[in-house]
């Protein structure tokens, strides 16, 4: 097809075409950018002709012009679009890591918008009229919800672990049970973070059993910290033993210069155990037991933005605040705004906590989910789709509560002509991407993570795709 290359129109000719002007006017792109996109469309055709893959066997110059502007219009519409897009999570996994984990509450979103669109007192003391510290923004509310003497925030919990080890245990020994040397998402390992921090890891016990005497026997003059790591993303069951927080705190307190640090991972501020959901320790319990320092995530069970929250004894937090890495790992005003508004909901009590989407979705009654699923099914029947509402289980996700299965109801949808993989893909590529599960050649919609307005979007998408 190389002989057809001579029919390709030059750029200056395409610039004079009426479709070029129409696209430019409708999308408000300047001529330089649109010319660049036109050149890319032209190059695409040239490559197809050289490879012999162009869609027409005997193309004319008019065919080329039509194809170029069709491609240009598509590319121009996509040009400059934000990569991050809203998606609808119909999987039922509440803290879906790939889909952004925790959704923010309405109050948190409003506070972010308020702070983003105005100047703020990020590092300013209004009463005194002088420079302040961004640590002050969030410290008071964290202290109130956890009972800690002091607190600070960094950009995620891995950063919190690194800062604590680097600032408080560099070149010193940190004792950790072998059963807690976990790997979190993206192949980040506790042992690797500790190595980078300059702390010396001392492993004790075995994968399934660690005793108090293992810690006692490992303590030396170089020991600076006893560290307990929450195994958020897995459970070891069967012939197992671990040492309680209370016993480790008591052991650390026998040595005046040894710090007890607990990485709590998921960071529950609400006691889900009261509802029979998991056995996650609440942060304030560990603080009350006497832990010197704890850290946990902001965007998991807490239900806020990505952040690493550090709380504990003032003398250690003050040292962390003064460390050079505190500036490297600090968060911006929008994270502070989202986190502050989320934590204020905890201060106000159980009623306001229910406004946090993670808590709401974890505690929603199965019968409420069933009603949503049946209402969805009733609106979809009678056409090309077959819908069956069935009992199933949701996951918490985000490496949190791995052994917890939440009773739910799903709508199993099948189409008379399309298989499940095809329908799931079309939903994923819909104007508002809809993420589903596929099982037994049916598309599953779990209504635990779906709100009424999202259900309406899904119904319209299925009508459009039918």
Automatic annotation (TrEMBL):
Its cofactor is pyridoxal 5'-phosphate. Keywords: Cytoplasm, Protein biosynthesis, Pyridoxal phosphate, Selenium, Transferase. Its EC number is 2.9.1.1. This is L-seryl-tRNA(Sec) selenium transferase. NCBIfam families: selA (TIGR00474). It is found in: Cytoplasm. Pfam families: SelA. It catalyses: L-seryl-tRNA(Sec) + selenophosphate + H(+) = L-selenocysteinyl-tRNA(Sec) + phosphate. It is an enzyme of class 2 (transferase). One of its GO terms (molecular function) is L-seryl-tRNA(Sec) selenium transferase activity. Pathway: Aminoacyl-tRNA biosynthesis; selenocysteinyl-tRNA(Sec) biosynthesis; selenocysteinyl-tRNA(Sec) from L-seryl-tRNA(Sec) (bacterial route): step 1/1. The gene is selA. Belongs to the SelA family. InterPro entries: PyrdxlP-dep_Trfase, PyrdxlP-dep_Trfase_major, SelA-like, SelA_trans.
